[in-house]
Design goal:
By secondary structure, the chain is of the alpha+beta class. The chain is 17% helix and 33% strand. The protein has helices spanning 20-33, 67-84; strands spanning 12-14, 37-38, 41-42, 47-49, 53-54, 56-60, 96-101, 106-110, 127-132, 138-139, 142-144, 148-150, 156-161, 168-170, 173-175, 178-185.
């Protein structure tokens, strides 16, 4: 990072990555048919349980409905990102995790460090990417670096480095359900 760059220069927001209809189809499909699991909070060394997170998750793998639509959206964003920061070399994307936050749901501030967590392949990710599937809920703000609130727009996405300089959290959902899909880029 040169002296003119800010931490926020490495956070890319994409307001129009997926159309609303596809977002709704994904929500309707997985909200009603997925075998949701209570998410747990993990560090680099151990799983710390549910005290830091109130969210349900489901892993979308390559043969699942809408996988190709989700992958296309992620690839668009990540390819744009690495066209600017071309030192990042993509090895692979992790499976996609759809997150469902009901009223009262939240995720405390953390950094993305998957070397041990979530059953993914070992290794530290270069980038995190999130796709926001809806905006018809209250609360549930996505906050990066303590004070950067990512705008709540259905079909938007964000890409940022997965390191200690980019702590992030999801504030408590106060009304409705919040859905997002995420992946890590190794």
């Amino acid at each position: 990072m040169n002296s003119n760059q800010q931490i926020s220069d490495y956070i890319f927001f994409y307001p129009d990555v997926m159309d609303a209809k596809t977002c709704e189809w994904i929500i309707n499909r997985y909200d009603t048919t997925a075998k949701w699991q209570q998410s747990t909070f993990s560090t680099a060394y151990k799983n710390t349980g549910t005290s830091q997170v109130a969210m349900e998750e489901y892993w979308i793998r390559s043969q699942a409905p809408y996988y190709k639509d989700i992958k296309k959206s992620f690839e668009y964003c990540v390819n744009d990102y690495i066209s600017v920061y071309d030192k990042i070399k993509i090895q692979e994307y992790t499976d996609f995790r759809i997150n469902r936050y009901k009223e009262g749901g939240f995720m405390n501030q953390h950094i993305d460090n998957i070397h041990y967590s979530h059953g993914q392949k070992q290794g530290y990710p270069h980038l995190t990417s999130l796709l926001f599937l809806n905006d018809d809920y209250e609360g549930g703000e996505f906050v990066l670096c303590g004070d950067k609130y990512i705008e709540k727009i259905q079909g938007s996405a964000v890409v940022f480095p997965s390191n200690f300089m980019y702590p992030h959290e999801v504030k408590e959902v106060t009304e409705g359900k919040r859905f997002s899909v995420m992946t890590w880029i190794l």
